[in-house]
């Protein structure tokens, strides 16, 4: 396991983590401690007191700020608690702009309209509206301590933000010695998969290895030990869910782009199904 050390020159110097009074929100907030510690970041623990909230909800949200702030300071993190008021997205956006925030972290804790966990949620809106990077979480087992021993990292192979994604992974490997599996799926219909001979399969596996090469090379440059898995399957979504379910992963790290956020407002999208059907925590990362 690599020795833990803060990177005070990291690009994410200021991080917001949002809490809302829920147990899931508090648990997700503790993920921010890992990154603030690894990167030497200043942490803002924020809740927004919206007009529609009742007195009990306001009290719970305020107590969440106090609780997470106390835990952050006990962990020797540079942290500050902030209470905002008004529209949630608007208030956070204003604070982000006025304080030059680099990263916002938020949790999706319950199904929204039409049983959606992500589409049209506060988290997806933050990703589309804020001028900074956003990380969203789905917490599956809020009673467990955060020690992800096995992490699944599905990679399409688009070369999207390899260094930033590697920063996330490195934070876990330094602190927990996490096992990392980089996962790529060559999507092919069941009919065509059955007709593949060995040379065709080898060619597709090699194609998958080339797609993820830049990301794998970045991880290896940091001396992060990884396992590569190239799968030929009908659906990337189904293969990710199957891999996570059968091999007992603790965390899935998914990258998302603005184009995909817009597409994911429709029902039946792969992110919704991964969030709903995987038996582990899921982290959605959207870098600006």
Notes on the structure:
There is one protein chain. It is built from eleven helices and ten strands. The protein has a ten-stranded mixed sheet with strand order 3-2-1-4-5-10-9-6-7-8, sandwiched between helices. It folds into two domains: 14-138, HUPs (Rossmann fold, 3-Layer(aba) Sandwich), CATH 3.40.50; 150-281, HUPs (Rossmann fold, 3-Layer(aba) Sandwich), CATH 3.40.50. α4 links the parallel β4 (103-108) and β5. It has 288 residues and is an alpha/beta fold. It is elongated, with a radius of gyration of 19 Å. Helix content is 43%, strand content 23%. The longest helix has 20 residues, at 55-74.
Helix content: 40-55%
Strand content: 15-25%
Structural class from helices and strands? alpha/beta
CATH topology of the largest domain: Rossmann fold
Strand segment count: 10
User: Segments where pLDDT lies below 50 for 5+ residues?
Assistant: 1-5, 111-115, 261-268
Return the domain count: 2
Helices, by number, come to: 11
Tell me the distance between the termini.
30 Å
- Principal-axis shape equals elongated
CATH homologous superfamily assignment of the largest domain: HUPs
Instruction: Please report the first level of CATH classification, the CATH class of the largest domain.
Output: Alpha Beta
Strands in their spatial order, largest beta sheet: 3-2-1-4-5-10-9-6-7-8
Q: Give the second-level CATH assignment, the architecture of the largest domain.
A: 3-Layer(aba) Sandwich
What's the overall average pLDDT, rounded?
85
In N-to-C order, the SSE pattern is: EHEHEHEHEEHEHHHEHEHHE
